[in-house]
């Protein structure tokens, strides 16, 4: 089979309002071209089939789907991929792309934002390249880049480090390690947390970081309630930071010079 006869793997971004009470209109966060391309796909790989169908229903209201929801072929990534991640190369995703080898375009979805960026999906992208499939990333919101751009921190040298440890002692040590790296190299350090632990993480950051270190928190990006605050830790301490986070909204944290 030639490459032209194979389907493509489309990386389809999702809105950043997953789990939020309020949802932003899709056309406010994603280009019409992305929504139209997604509407033409009938085979999907996702984290959760239920939320994938909910997203497809929202797309259908803007760009009619090529097949009814009941006829969409939706496969879920294994649960262990969600828990441990799939960026290490230990999961073989090639069987999930059988439809693409048969000529069907396949869409890869995460719960929010761009799949394979701060979310599962890397294994599927690697498998697509191994199988000789064309990989097409579609345009849409990526919370990490939106937060970085709005932070005023170094956008020329930055790193995303995932989640910080939940144990208080380990988390404090990791915060100090990342701060030392940021202050020495100038590299902005970005990380995330489960929304209901946002307040605890912010409190730990404000208590642990040096007073001249700059801390940025971007929450609810692309929503009407979006808020970005970027100040020195000294200013955060003066403003009772625990009152500035909404535990229902996803947030991106960043530290730097």
Describe the structure.
It is a single chain. Helix content is 34%, strand content 18%. It is α/β, with parallel strands linked by helices. The protein has two domains: 8-137, Cobalt-precorrin-4 Transmethylase, domain 1 (3-Layer(aba) Sandwich); 143-256, Tetrapyrrole methylase, C-terminal domain (Methyltransferase, Cobalt-precorrin-4 Transmethylase, Domain 2). The protein has a five-stranded parallel β-sheet with strand order 3-2-4-1-5, covered by helices on one side. Strands 6-7-10-8-9 form a five-stranded mixed β-sheet, with helices on both faces. The longest helix is centred in the last third of the chain and has 18 residues, at 168-185. The model has no long low-confidence stretch (mean pLDDT 92). One of its GO terms (biological process) is methylation. InterPro entries: 4pyrrol_Methylase_sf (IPR035996), 4pyrrole_Mease_sub1 (IPR014777), 4pyrrole_Mease_sub2 (IPR014776), rRNA_ssu_MeTfrase_I (IPR008189). This is Ribosomal RNA small subunit methyltransferase I.
Write a concise keyword list for the protein shown above.
257 residues, alpha/beta, Cobalt-precorrin-4 Transmethylase, domain 1, Methyltransferase, Cobalt-precorrin-4 Transmethylase, Domain 2, 2 domains, five-stranded parallel beta sheet, five-stranded mixed beta sheet, 10 helices, 18% strand
């Amino acid at each position: 089979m030639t490459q032209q006869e194979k389907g493509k793997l489309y990386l389809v971004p999702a809105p950043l309002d997953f789990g939020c009470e309020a949802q932003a209109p899709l056309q406010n966060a994603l280009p019409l071209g992305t929504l139209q391309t997604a509407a033409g796909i009938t085979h999907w790989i996702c984290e959760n089939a239920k939320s994938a169908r909910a997203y497809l229903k929202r797309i259908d209201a803007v760009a009619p789907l090529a097949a009814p929801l009941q006829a969409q072929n939706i496969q879920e990534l294994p649960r262990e991929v969600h828990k441990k991640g799939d960026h290490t190369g230990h999961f073989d995703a090639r069987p999930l792309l059988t439809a693409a080898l048969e000529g069907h375009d396949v869409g890869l979805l995460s719960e929010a934002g761009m799949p394979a960026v701060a979310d599962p999906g890397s294994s599927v992208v690697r498998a697509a390249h191994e199988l000789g499939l064309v990989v097409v990333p579609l345009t849409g919101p990526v919370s990490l880049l939106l937060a970085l751009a709005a932070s005023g921190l170094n956008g020329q040298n930055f790193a995303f480090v995932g989640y910080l440890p939940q144990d208080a002692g380990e988390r404090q040590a990791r915060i100090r390690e990342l701060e030392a790296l940021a202050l020495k190299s100038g590299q902005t350090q970005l990380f995330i947390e489960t929304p209901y632990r946002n307040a605890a993480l912010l409190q730990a950051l404000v208590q642990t970081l040096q007073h001249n270190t700059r801390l940025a928190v971007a929450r609810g990006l692309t929503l009407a309630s979006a808020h970005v605050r970027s100040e020195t830790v000294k200013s955060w301490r003066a403003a009772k930071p625990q009152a500035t986070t909404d535990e229902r909204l996803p947030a991106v944290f960043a530290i730097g010079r």
